[in-house]
Design brief:
By secondary structure, the protein is of the alpha/beta class. Among the domains are: 168 residues, NADH-ubiquinone oxidoreductase 51kDa subunit (Rossmann fold); 57 residues, no CATH class. It has 16 helices and 17 strands. The strands form 4 sheets. A 6-stranded mixed beta sheet has the order 1-14-13-17-15-16, sandwiched between helices. Helix 12 packs across helix 15. The chain starts with a helix and ends with a helix. The chain binds iron/sulfur cluster (2 copies). The site of one iron/sulfur cluster (SF4) has 16 residues, from helix 12, helix 14 and helix 15. One iron/sulfur cluster binds next to helix 12, helix 14 and helix 15.
């Protein structure tokens, strides 16, 4: 207890800004977690993570078993996708997916058979014999991504590079955003799995120590993790103050270690790697049980459900199914949000599926939406700057983003914004500031992509022009040389003629004489032949007459 107290005292709030929005966590922690019912149909987007979408390795009509890989990672920053239960692939085409764009994207659809029959599983109990690379491959093949909401492939974060020494692995169990309690539940219910996952991660990273961070509004989770950590050397549990956005990676590192991550830098640069507590449990399951990432804890809450709860849901389950499991009526909802109220975004339909990054579903009624206040003009109060955890100037960012002055927005460090939403939360004019920043970032990325494509096209055009000009010059050179050679040969011939003029004239005379002789000889021959013909003519005629008589 004394140790915990010391840890609490040490872990004071050490980053600037932050807010204290109403928690709304009590609603979903009054009952234990429940397992999902297997829905008739699972919709699995190929893009559920940061990086390239996965590539399907099944076809329509294929039978699949639970845990079978159905899409492979496409490139280094990508993640495989596995069948969450047994069934038949009924479609591979575009469906609505959870994404801020609201666009459809390619998905694999499985009609489930209710048998929930596992395929082959390769559990590795003696994983300590494996090197870091082999462990990372298991984690990669299991399709594990950061389950805190970011969705970055976990094996990459377990590979900081041979030159980087990792001193500290920070396990993030802060879960500072209102309404969300899925990490709270996984720490209460699966602390043993998390601890074994930590051991594997430390082995892969060769990390000296691990700090498990839990926000002080989760006493049960803190207790459960502390009990488990007692058995493991080099692991301690730290309770951190309840303030949003304490769970944001850079803010957490600063609060726990006092070290600041360099701007545009990574935590590995200061010898630290952060992972979510649910990710650690997923790593345990992948290694010890050969189980890929096919399910996760999801908090289903909001005024649109009668009983908020945490559901251990299969990936691909339509959100409407989970809302029904919480006694909600999807048809009566005005909005479904994925994520929390600060960083989440509205779904285009309640049919979008649960994916690897779905930590929370908030079902909103018409009253929730009607009670939203109208947006007013900025009054330059400066409240937004006071709460920004990155010490930005949100008001200036807003002006530049609104006027689409992207250069100015970047001068004000737009890309350091972590989109936490603190500025929007406190803004008395209710300006959706984060939406402006997201939009500006999207436009800048689009411009840069377009510029990169234009540069490639311009490069190709310039290369073609250079080639055409070079070929034309070479052709002209060849032509010039040929012309010169011809002129030289003519000149040479003329010189020979001038030198040997007489000889040439004689040769010419002799030549004419020979021709005249030949003509005279031909004439004489023709005359001789004509004479001979006149002599022979009567014999021929007589012969002919004879023949004609006998025929008649
Ligand atoms: S909090 Fe809102 S009203 Fe106040 S300065 Fe910032 S943007 Fe303007
Ligand atoms: S959304 Fe961006 S600008 Fe606003 S408070 Fe958070 S980090 Fe600062």
């Amino acid at each position: 207890m004394i140790e915990n107290l010391i840890q609490r005292l040490l872990s004071t709030h050490k980053f600037p800004g932050g807010v204290h929005p109403p928690q709304h966590k009590a609603e979903s922690i009054s009952v234990g977690s429940v397992k999902t019912e297997i829905p008739a149909r699972l919709i699995l987007p190929l893009h559920q993570h940061i990086g390239e979408p996965a590539e399907p390795i099944v076809a329509v009509g294929d039978k699949v078993l639970k845990g079978q890989r159905i899409a492979k990672a496409n490139g280094y920053v990508s993640a495989a996708i596995h069948a969450p239960t047994s069934g038949t692939v009924s479609d591979i085409s575009d469906y609505p997916i959870p994404h801020p764009s609201g666009l459809n994207a390619p998905c694999i659809v499985i009609e489930t058979d209710g048998e929930d029959k596992w395929g082959e599983r390769l559990a590795v109990q003696d994983w300590k014999k494996l090197d870091a690379s082999a462990l990372r491959n298991i984690i990669r093949d299991a399709g594990i991504v950061g389950l805190g909401g970011a969705g970055f492939p976990s094996f990459i974060k377990l590979n900081p590079g041979a030159s980087k020494q990792i001193d500290t692995l920070i396990l993030n169990g802060v879960e500072c955003e209102p309404y969300i309690t899925c990490d709270d539940f996984i720490m209460r219910e699966r602390s043993g799995e998390i601890m074994l996952g930590i051991t594997i991660m430390r082995h892969a990273l060769n990390a000296k120590e691990c700090i498990i961070t839990v926000e002080e509004n989760k006493p049960e989770a803190f207790q459960a993790m502390t009990m488990m950590a007692k058995e493991t050397s080099g692991v301690k549990v730290m309770s951190v103050p309840t303030i949003y956005p304490h769970g944001s990676e850079k803010q957490l590192v600063q609060a726990v270690t006092g070290k600041e991550v360099p701007a545009n830098g990574l935590t590995t640069q200061i010898g630290i790697v952060c992972h979510n507590v649910a990710t650690a449990a997923a790593v345990y399951r992948a290694v010890y049980q050969g189980e890929p990432l096919i399910s996760r804890y999801v908090t289903v809450t909001g005024s649109g459900v009668k009983q908020a709860k945490n559901i251990r849901a299969l990936m691909g389950t339509p959100m409407s199914e989970l809302i029904k499991q919480c006694d909600g009526e999807p048809a009566s909802l005005s909005r479904v949000i994925m994520g929390g109220p600060m960083m989440g975004y509205a779904m285009q339909t309640d049919q979008v599926p649960v994916i690897k990054t779905t930590n929370c579903i908030i079902a909103c009624t018409a009253e929730d939406v009607v009670s939203e206040p109208a947006v007013m003009p900025c009054i330059r109060c400066g409240a937004c700057a006071e709460v920004c955890p990155v010490s930005l100037l949100p008001q200036q960012l807003y002006w530049h983003a609104k006027s689409r002055d992207h250069d100015k927005a970047q001068e004000f460090n737009l890309f350091d914004c972590i989109e936490c939403g603190c500025c929007s939360y406190v803004c008395p004019s209710k300006i959706p500031l984060v939406q402006y920043y997201r939009h500006a970032k999207g436009e800048i990325w689009a411009d840069e992509r377009e510029k990169a494509l234009a540069d490639i096209a311009r490069g190709r055009h310039e290369f073609r022009q250079t080639r055409i000009e070079r070929e034309a010059a070479e052709k002209a050179e060849r032509h010039r040389k040929k012309k010169e050679a011809l002129a030289a040969s003519k000149k040479k011939a003329a010189a020979i003629t001038a030198t040997d003029g007489k000889t040439a004239a004689e040769n010419s005379g002799n030549k004419n004489t020979a021709i005249d002789d030949a003509i005279a000889k031909a004439k004489a021959k023709r005359l001789q032949q004509g004479h001979a013909h006149e002599k022979a003519a009567p014999e021929n005629t007589a012969g002919k007459n004879k023949t004609e008589t006998s025929d008649s």
